[in-house]
Design a protein that fits this description.
This protein is mainly alpha-helical and 223 residues long. It is 83% helix and 0% strand.
């Protein structure tokens, strides 16, 4: 009687365990996939912004409406929908301008029309070089994240004052920040690896549970 009852219960328990394992695996994979989707969405948004910004720059150069850094800032602010407070940092502007400069020099047809004259390209390049230099002077370290940028700006100020004490403090602060960034990156990497390991383990367990359920089923039938 006990053996018959066990033979009936064990397959049911195995199937329940199999179902639980599958659910856990799906959750792990979904979390990992959600992170990947967010990353892809961020990349798509940046590509979309960059394409629009580059197109606006090309149109501005063609119409000869870009003469100063202020003209480019106005375009950048409009395309990025930045407030006055945001634009004061000009985060990423120099990087985008340098990427556009590379496209200009290489005559990338996706950005620079094929009909653009050589003398126009040279003129745009000269103007862009001057604007990038001016932006770097006005807003140094503009391509860095806010925390790192603020620390380096403070160090620059203290260098002019010859304040070595505060410079050392800021360098220590920068060192701690770099370590924190590195630790955060490692945690994200380990977390991603953990999700993959859980998914793999659950997959193996599901295969084992399925095989065991089939074995017990046929054993119960006496085959």
């Amino acid at each position: 009687m006990v053996e018959e009852l066990s033979a009936e219960i064990v397959p049911a328990v195995v199937l329940v365990a199999y179902f639980i394992v599958i659910v856990i695996a799906l959750i792990a994979v979904r979390r990992n996939r959600a992170g990947q989707i967010r990353d892809r969405d961020d990349i798509r948004l940046e590509k979309k912004f960059k394409a629009k910004f580059f197109r606006s720059l090309t149109e501005g150069f063609q119409l000869e409406s870009i003469k100063t850094l202020e003209d480019i800032l106005n375009i950048y602010e409009a395309v990025a929908s930045l407030s006055d407070e945001d634009i004061s940092y000009r985060y990423g502007l120099s990087r985008y301008l340098r990427e556009y400069l590379v496209a200009l020099i290489s005559k990338d047809e996706k950005i620079i029309p094929r009909t653009t004259r050589e003398e126009d390209i040279l003129e745009w390049k000269k103007l862009l070089d001057r604007i990038i230099t001016e932006n770097d002077i006005q807003v140094p370290y503009s391509d860095l994240p806010p925390l790192e940028r603020n620390i380096l700006n403070d160090i620059t100020i203290y260098l002019k004052k010859g304040d070595t004490g505060h410079i050392n403090d800021k360098l220590k602060e920068l060192s701690r920040l770099i370590k924190a960034r590195d630790g955060e990156l490692n945690r994200i990497r380990k977390k991603t690896d953990g999700y993959l390991q859980i998914a793999l383990f659950c997959l193996l367990m599901s295969v084992f549970a399925g095989a065991l359920a089939v074995y017990l089923y046929y054993k119960q039938l006496g085959l």
